[in-house]
Amino acid sequence: MAVCDSLGITAQTVETITRKEEDKLRRTLARIEALIDEYAIERIVLGYPKNMNNTIGERARKTEELKTALERRTGLPVILWDERLTTVAANRVLMESGVRREHRKESVDQIAAAMILQGYLDSLSTEEKSRIAEGK
Question: In terms of Cα–Cα distance, which of 114, 100, 97 is closest to 13?
Fold first, then answer.
C-alpha cells in the first residue's frame, strides 16, 4: 500500500497487506479500512494486472471483484490503474540501489504500489491536484 502527500504530488510506501488464504478477504478489508481512517484516504487506486497484450485474465477479474468489495465496504471511489511492468521496475530500482536479492521480496510490492499510485498522480491535471489538496 502507498499513500500520497496532501497536495497529491508524491506517493510514499506504507506497508504490504498480504492475504495468506483466499477466503480471508474480510480481514484484508478491515486492515485497508484502518489505513483509510489513519491516512484520511478519499479514493483508492488499485493496481489492475492486465495481460501484456491488454486482455483481462483471471487475476484482473479477481481485482475487479476486490474493487467492488472495496467500494461497497468503504463507500470510496476505486480507480483501476494498469500495473503492467511495475514489479519489474520495482525490482530494477531495488537492484540499482544495491538491495540483495534475498531482501528485495520484502520491499518490491511496496515500491510497485508507490509506482502505481505515482503513475495515477502524474496523470492528473493541476486542477484535479488542487481539488485533492482542498479535500473536494
Answer: 114
Query: For 55, left (φ over 0), alpha (ψ -120 to 50), or beta?
Result: beta
* Secondary-structure class of domain 2-8+19-134 per CATH: alpha beta
Cα–Cα distances in angstroms (integers) from residue 101 to residues 76, 81, 106, in the given order: 37, 27, 10
Angle between helices 86-96 and 101-123 (to 10 degrees): 120
Report the predicted TM-score, pTM, of the whole model to 2 decimal places.
0.81
3-state secondary structure of 56: coil
Neighbour tally for 122: CB within 10 Å:
10
User: Residue ranges per domain, the chain?
Assistant: 2-8+19-134
Reported as a single tens digit per residue, the pLDDT across 37-46 is 999 999 999 9
